[in-house]
Amino acid sequence: MKRLLTFFLVLPFLIQAQTYKAIDTADLQQRKALKIFYEAKYKTFNEQLKNTYTGKKKKEIMAFYKENQEDFLEEIDEKHFLYNAEIESYINSIVKNIVEKNGFNFMDYKVLVSKDVGPNAFCIGDGTIIINLGLFRFLENEDQMAAVLCHEIGHQVLDHTKKTILRTVERDLSSEYSKKTSSIKSQRYNRQSKAFEMLKDVMYKDAEQNRMQEMSADSIGYILYRNTQYAKNEFPNSLKILKEIEDHEDEAMKIMFLDSMDYEKFFNLPNQPFKKEWLKLEDFSSYNYDLYKEKIDEDSISTHPEIAKRIAKLNALFPELKELSENKTVEPNEAFSKIEKIADYESIPNLYYDEDCGASLYYALKKLKKYPDDAFAREWIGINFQKMYEAKKEYKFNRYVEQLAPKDQSKSYFQFLNFLWNLNLEEYKNIADYYTKK
Predict the structure, then answer these.
(1) Which of 221, 383, 212 is nearest to 303 (CA)?
(2) Closest CA to 280 of 265, 263, 266
(3) pLDDT tens digits for 131-187?
(4) How far out from the chain centre does Cα 8 lie?
(5) pTM of the predicted model, to two decimals?
(6) How many angstroms separate the CA atoms of 141 and 329, rounded?
(7) How does DSSP assign 134-188, residue by residue?
(8) CA 436 to the chain's CA centroid
(9) pLDDT the model gives residue 285
């Protein structure tokens, strides 16, 4: 999971590209209240654990939960969550509709909105569902958001988090596992390779269990979903969008590509003319990519199996979905569209605060290309360049800007990163000064 009520909110009712202002929350009191809520919740839960298990099993389970709880409370402290009454109310209304239509108690669920720009959602096993704000940028309507929420509620109904923890603890305490680890420790040679083979075996077995859980959450999620008023075909459509993200990440991320003319337009400054050498590409043609090839097949250990297989499984279990596959996508309602636009803009400061200045700048440049008079985009271009200037001066540049990896990056994003790495310290300062001046 490592990688919302008193507040001040600046949010126009009609979002215009040139007038958008970032959400501004004074969230100290909200964070304190949320932390107190979960500390009390965990205290009660941990007391129940103590009375349920004994011996080594109790010790291991308690340690596992304690670590997860501490990580979650740290995320609250580190401002990972968004405190916005409008967004919170909107998502809660969807969850309330789902759970009440299925005979559940809405009070058993709590929804938090993460500032993360990625298209994801999580159920952490205690009725808490976390929705990344970025999910709004990828889904097309409220129906698809309801589908994602039904999938996460499905994980909760099936108690997958608890089962995963128990399975992990039982494996670690098993005599077979202990014998294998002891045997490796006692060997004089090849301990590292044998330990890796055991780790790989464990990861493959865990991944298979996790994939089965994802498919069962799909099935239960659709049963919950079809009890609502939402269009049934939008459930598999939400999965298809995830598949598009996996297959074509840049296009799915809705990134507008930048070309050489854009760089010249943005960075041909009065006191610093544009230099063609800024766009000179490093030659990676002779780079040996196999030198650092992963030893573990990522597809085999992925917790989310191939989306096509998940859709095929749903079609087999629910034949009605095949007949609905050609139905038109539902148009987004006004509330969804509004939050989608907020999420799109908020990705720029959220990436910045997550110390990914390169991606934040890329999104800001995309906005400025689409809306040349966008003051919000111009402001964040200046903020990012100022941060990168300071980082470069302190030899911490790679902490905020990705390294070049042409095999893993689109041509446009690789060109963008290459441009950033070609600039010198003085050039960063001049660009920062230009975009931060009032």
Answers:
(1) 212
(2) 263
(3) 999 999 999 999 999 999 999 999 999 998 888 888 888 877 775 645 555 554 565
(4) 26
(5) 0.83
(6) 8
(7) THHHH--SHHHHHHHHHHHHHHHHTTHHHHHHHHHHHHHHSHHHHHHHHHHHH-S
(8) 30
(9) 57
110-114, strands of its sheet edge to edge? 110-114, 128-132, 121-123
- The tokens 């952490």 sit on which residue? 124
Tokens describing residue 309: 């297989």
Q: Please give the torsion angle defined by the CA atoms of residues 77, 83, 87 and 93, in that order, rounded to the nearest 10 degrees.
A: 80
Pairing between β-strand 110-114 and β-strand 121-123 as defined by DSSP bridges = unpaired
Yes or no: say if 123 and 129 are a contact pair by the CB < 8 Å rule.
Answer: yes
- Identify which of 127, 93, 132, 107 has the alpha carbon closest to the alpha carbon of residue 228: 93
Of the candidates 102, 101, 149, 328, the residue with the CA atom closest to the CA atom of residue 233:
328
Distance CA 34, CA 6 (A): 12
Any idea which residue has 């500032």 for tokens?
A: 115
- Spell out the residues 6+ positions from residue 230 whose beta carbon is closer than 8 angstroms to its own: 142, 143, 146, 147
Model pLDDT for residues 61-109, shown as the tens digit of each residue: 999 899 999 999 999 999 999 999 999 999 999 999 999 999 999 999 9
Q: Assess contact for 138 and 118: CB atoms under 8 A.
A: no
Whether the CA torsion 35, 41, 46, 47 is positive or negative: it is positive
**Cα–Cα distance between 381 and 369 in angstroms, integer?**
12
Q: Among the residues of 329-410, which ranges form H helices?
A: 334-353, 357-370, 375-393
Question: At residue 188, does pLDDT exceed 60?
Answer: no
Distances (CA, A) of 366 to 79, 275, 357, 388, 418: 26, 21, 14, 18, 17
Residue 171: count of CB within 10 angstroms of its CB: 13
Q: Does residue 164 contact residue 64 with C-beta atoms inside 8 Å? A: no
Encoding tokens for residue 334?
């006004």
Confidence of residue 412 (pLDDT cuts 50, 70, 90): confident
CA distance 276 to 262: 12
Residue 255's contacts (CB-CB under 8 Å, 6 or more residues apart) are 362, 363, 366, 410, 412, 413
Q: Which residues contact residue 237 at a Cβ distance below 8 angstroms, ignoring those fewer than 6 apart?
A: 140, 144, 147, 329
Give Cα 48 distance to the centre of its chain. 32
Q: Which of 198, 124, 196 is nearest to 160 (CA)?
A: 124
- 356 token code pair: 């990914």
